[in-house]
Write a structure and sequence with these properties.
The complex is a heterodimer. Chain A is of the alpha+beta class. Chain A has 3 helices and 5 strands. Chain B has a single domain, classed as Methylamine Dehydrogenase, Chain H. Chain B is globular, with a radius of gyration of 20 Å. The chains are: A alpha+beta, B mainly beta. At the A-B interface, helix 1 and helix 2 of A face strand 6 of B.
């Protein structure tokens, strides 16, 4: 199972607490994880990536295994530890405020 | 016993304020959608427990929320969790937060550009829904005015949204420019006597009217005069802040423009200034008394850069003559050191007798008058900055 950590506002929208666990078919990539996430939680469509272009929203970042993956190709494989469920895939709202 | 329900949108959530017809004691619920900007909430006039809310965030975009029980519970009216997001035929199912400009060759227009603040072409980019206007006859039909300026409609209770592309396809659209708050379509007025007639207003393009349910549109800005644009009497380019109509007299419209309070007696074909003795004719909201079509309300603001009341005194002004002669309403409103603003969607009236009037401020106060403006009292004082106020009169 793939573990995904959502920012607080998106946990509220999805009506979940804590991590989300997803089953992902095939290669584990940003795209396949987000596809699986949106299939389970359709209310999140458009909140992480654009409805049409599928591009990551400007103030949303992706991290895993202490790496910033925000600018990686959406089809690049995620670290093995994410695919094995040892580490979560982090979806993070950009820091703002004081 | 009848009562009222006040729907308040703020920078950090929504609040629902309810009272009986006396409008003295209030129940407060909220924040709903805590931490999100709630630009607007509005109820269906034919099914008052059906509410729509625009929830948005610079991080996570636009969400549409719906309540079917008067604001007690809310849901996104798209595909429920756990259900497939596509039909068995592979077609996507409803997604309530999907607003995509219509660029199809059959119905839409090529997605060209409008003008940016500096006068250079700028692509159309969807930012948020500013205003939701439920149909006068069908609770599942609702219009959405969005930034960058366009008009969308849902006919399935907010699940799916389609642009009415004739507006953005108007020949003037490439010359539209944003106002200070963005290029927003912020006002939608449905004409109860002409089912296909809709008035909209865009900052800073002006008023447009359709008589064929959104297929074609005409600018309705004759008589407006705006300094600060190359041609002060141009057909489009005016920063209209709000327009209001009384249901019993839909040919008469009132407008708060960037500067100037205006009136039209011919359904927007022409306008004349009715600012009269106002201390300043800059402001954002304007509304009409529920039972007196010639009684109107504005909140004068010092200037386009000083967005607070003149002299630090929050005064609602009332005209009982459809403009020109205005009286200051001050009883119960702060009359010293008050530097809040009242935004364009933050004034509303109920239809009880006497008519109630409500204003919300950027300081987080919602003031109510249960006597048509003669006296005021705060319902709440310390909400986040208020963006919008709507009122439902309940049986």
């Amino acid at each position: 199972m793939i573990r995904v950590v959502l920012p607080a506002h998106l946990r509220t929208l999805a009506h979940v607490d804590g991590e989300v666990k997803l089953h992902v078919e095939g290669p584990v990539t940003q795209r396949s994880v987000l596809d699986a996430l949106e299939a389970c939680y359709p209310m999140l469509r458009g909140t992480i990536r654009d409805h049409v272009t599928q591009q990551r929203r400007a103030f949303v970042r992706f991290f895993a295994c202490e790496q910033d993956l925000s600018h990686e190709s959406p089809d690049a494989p995620l670290p093995d530890a994410v695919g094995m469920g040892a580490e979560p895939f982090l979806i993070v709202g950009a820091m703002a405020g004081g | 016993m009848s009562g009222v329900r006040v729907l308040v949108g703020t920078r950090k959530g929504a609040f629902v304020l309810t009272s009986d017809a006396k409008r003295e004691r209030w129940d407060i619920s909220g924040p709903h959608f805590a931490g999100w900007e709630i630009y607007h909430l509005k109820g269906s006039p034919v099914e008052p427990n059906r509410l729509y809310a625009s929830q948005s965030s610079g991080w996570f975009g636009q969400i549409i929320q719906r309540s079917d029980d008067g604001g007690k519970t809310w849901h996104q009216p798209g595909t429920p969790p756990g259900e497939p997001t596509t039909t068995s035929g592979g077609m996507p199912k409803g997604e309530s937060n999907k607003f995509v400009y219509d660029t199809s060759p059959e119905t839409g227009k090529p997605l060209t550009t409008h003008l940016w603040y500096d006068g250079t072409p700028h692509p159309w980019e969807f930012a948020r829904v500013w205003h939701l206007e439920p149909s006068l006859t069908d609770p599942d039909t609702v219009y959405a005015g969005v930034e960058d300026a366009a008009l969308f409609r849902s006919t399935d209770g907010g699940q799916t949204w389609q642009e009415l592309p004739g507006l953005r396809g108007h020949s003037s659209a490439s010359s539209w420019q944003p106002g200070a708050g963005g290029m927003c379509l912020h006002t939608i007025v449905l004409d109860p006597s002409h089912p296909g007639r809709i008035f909209i207003a865009i900052s800073a393009a002006g008023v447009f009217r359709t008589d064929d349910a959104g297929k074609t549109w005409r600018p309705m800005n004759r008589g407006l005069r705006s300094e600060g644009i190359p041609d002060p009497t141009a057909e489009v380019g005016h920063c209209v802040h709000r327009i209001a109509m009384h249901r019993s007299r839909p040919g008469v419209l009132f407008m708060q423009k960037h500067w100037d309070v205006m009136r039209s007696d011919d359904a927007g074909e022409s306008w004349r200034e009715v600012s009269g003795n106002l201390p300043t004719d800059f402001g954002f909201p304007i509304d009409v008394h529920a039972h007196e079509p010639d009684t109107i309300y504005v909140v004068p603001i010092k200037s386009d850069s000083e967005h607070y009341p003149p002299d630090g005194k929050l005064r609602v002004y009332r005209s009982r003559t459809g403009g020109n002669e205005w009286e200051a309403l001050t009883k119960g409103l702060p009359q010293s050191h008050c530097y809040v603003n009242v935004l364009r969607d933050a004034m509303a009236v109920d239809s009880l007798d006497p008519c109630g009037v409500y204003v919300g401020t950027t300081g987080g106060q919602v003031y109510a008058s249960a006597d048509a403006g003669d006296s005021w009292a705060p319902i709440v004082r310390d909400l986040p900055a208020v963006v919008s106020v709507e009122v439902q009169t309940l049986p």
